[in-house]
Amino acid sequence: MTTPESTPNIVLNVNGIEVIYNHVILVLKGVSLNVPEGKIAAVLGGNGAGKTTTLRAISNLLKAERGEVTKGSIELRGERIENLSTSDLVQRGVVQVMEGRHCFAHLTIEENLMTGSYTRKDKAEIARNLEKVYNYFPRLKTRRTSQAAYTSGGEQQMCAIGRALMTNPSVMLLDEPSMGLAP
After folding, report:
1. What is the pLDDT of residue 178?
2. Rounded Cα–Cα distance for residues 183 and 162 (Å)
3. 53 and 121 together in one domain
4. What are the residues whose beta carbons fall under 8 Å from the beta carbon of 115, sequence distance 6 or more?
5. pLDDT given for residue 182 in this prediction
6. In the chain, how many domains are there?
7. What is the spatial distance between Cα 140 and Cα 163, in angstroms, rounded to a whole number?
8. Do residues 84 and 117 both lie within one domain?
9. What ranges in the chain are assigned the alpha helix state H?
């Protein structure tokens, strides 16, 4: 028996979503998941199973791929978010690290990290977040002045995750974070 005190707060609630691409191609049907506060959830499946589409639906990146959530709901702490802009979602603490180490090649590692703090105004918070990223990924601190294009795949992946951490997220969506990296 669970009591109200033992019931975890649900941060993210995906309830029976359906995603269609190009107004005709049904990609997801009836996908549901809950992510409690302070917990990690994984979406597992083979190639083409809909993992990336599920993450794009949550972070509202489907429009760029001519897709849309046509049924169901996506809630962040009880607020429906499926129609919010990606920038509104980042303001609310939802950030996605997309597959493929998307770094700004011409920027340094530190400049890449700082692009993740564009929603933050408090310079002390930005400095704390940067130090937190460097504590998680000491290699980035060593390479902070290197142009991202001239860093390894692993360093670029750390940079992409670090940039997301700079937003101080409450929900971080990682799409294939270890793809293409050596063990």
Report:
1. 80
2. 20
3. no
4. 104, 107, 163, 166
5. 63
6. 2
7. 11
8. no
9. 51-58, 86-92, 109-115, 123-136, 138-142, 153-165
Q: What is the CATH number of the domain that holds 83?
A: 3.40.50.300
Q: Contact, 67 vs 20, CB < 8 A? A: yes
CA distances from 7 to 3, 15, 37, 147, 164 (A): 6, 18, 10, 46, 29
122: which residues sit within 8 A by CB, 6+ positions away?
none
User: Which amino acid is residue 174, in one-letter code?
Assistant: L
Domain span at 72: 10-92
> Which amino acid makes up residue 107?
L
Is the whole-model pTM more than 0.90? no
**45 and 79 belong to one structural domain:** yes
Q: State the average pLDDT for the chain.
A: 91
Is 82 part of any domain?
Answer: yes
Convert the pLDDT of each residue in 14-67 to its tens digit: 999 999 999 999 999 999 999 999 999 999 998 899 999 999 999 999 988 899
**Reported confidence tier of residue 121, pLDDT bands at 50, 70, 90:** confident
- Examine the domain organization and report whether 64 and 120 are in the same domain: no
Cβ-count burial of 147 within 10 angstroms (0-12 exposed, 13-18 middle, 19+ buried)? middle
Residue 178 lies in a domain: no
**7: pLDDT confidence band, cut at 50, 70 and 90?**
low
- What is the distance between the alpha carbons of residues 39 and 53, in angstroms, rounded to a whole number? 21
